[in-house]
Structure formats: C-alpha cells, structure tokens
C-alpha cells in the first residue's frame, strides 16, 4: 500500500474516532439529543436498506438535492444517486456495518462492501450530512483499484465479444 493511501486511511479513522468520541461524551446535539436520536434511526434504516439491497428503503432517506462524491464519480440529485446504487447491487454479495458515529448533523459509517470476485471485500467509510432529516451530502472513501480493474476486465470482454 502506498503512503498516500495510508494517510487517507489514517484520516478516515481519525475522523470516525473524533465523531464517535464527541457523540459518546454527549456533545453531539445542543437540542438535548432529539436530533441525534432521529439521525441515529435514519442511519440504521439507511444502512439496513443497503444490506437488503432495498432501493426504495435507501430512497426514503436521501434528500432530493443530494450531492454524492466518491473516488470514481461525483453525482447530484436523488435519481442519479439511486441509479448508481442500483448498478452496485449486482456486485454486492453482503454489506457488513462495522461502526456508526454521529455528531450533530453528520454521521460517519464504516462498513465492508463484500462484492463478487474479483473485487472482494471493499472496506469503506461514508461521511454523510443531514438536512431536513434526509441525507444531503455523501462522501465515500475506499480503495478504487479493485473496481477499476473490474471495469477494465468488463471492457476487454465486451471488446472480444
């Protein structure tokens, strides 16, 4: 693994720890915890929908003007986000949540996207921001190399057939 990826991993982990430690000390929500409870419930439902490959369940938690950013793409709008999610479902064998950390209007998730070969396990961190009770911003952090290799292999197969 190169030094750039090591730094990114450390930054993601540090952010998750910072969010988790603030939330654990009770500093996450000046409204007395109501927003955190609602965000906690939304986070659980959203992650559960991913685990079930439930596109309607995912959609229920996504803001119409969502902004999505990942190593391989950037999208705006709920429909674009949901189309990308639907394209992931055939690759996804299992979705294992490792941790959820909430602080104010933001949450960070750590999970494993367990994909069919040759991708395998993709350890992923997802930073989200909520607006009006829905996920407004999504930023994913993962190693894109296995997905890029998979796309190249598909392109080569299409070129032969």
- The strand line-up of the biggest sheet is 2-1-6-5-4-3
Could you list the spans in which at least 5 consecutive residues all have pLDDT below 50? 1-32
Q: Which structural class do the helices and strands define? A: alpha+beta
CATH architecture: Roll
Estimate nothing, just give the exact number of structural domains.
Answer: 1
Radius of gyration from CA coordinates: 17 Å
User: What is the CATH topology classification name?
Assistant: Nuclear Transport Factor 2, Chain: A
Number of helices: 5
Shape: globular
**Mean model confidence by pLDDT:** 81
- Termini gap: 35 Å
Please report the first level of CATH classification, the CATH class: Alpha Beta
Sheet of most strands: 6 strands, mixed
Number of strand elements: 6
Order of helices and strands: HHHEEHEEEEH
Question: How much β-strand is present in the residues?
Answer: 25-35%
Percent range of helical residues: 40-55%
Q: What oligomeric arrangement do these chains adopt?
A: single chain
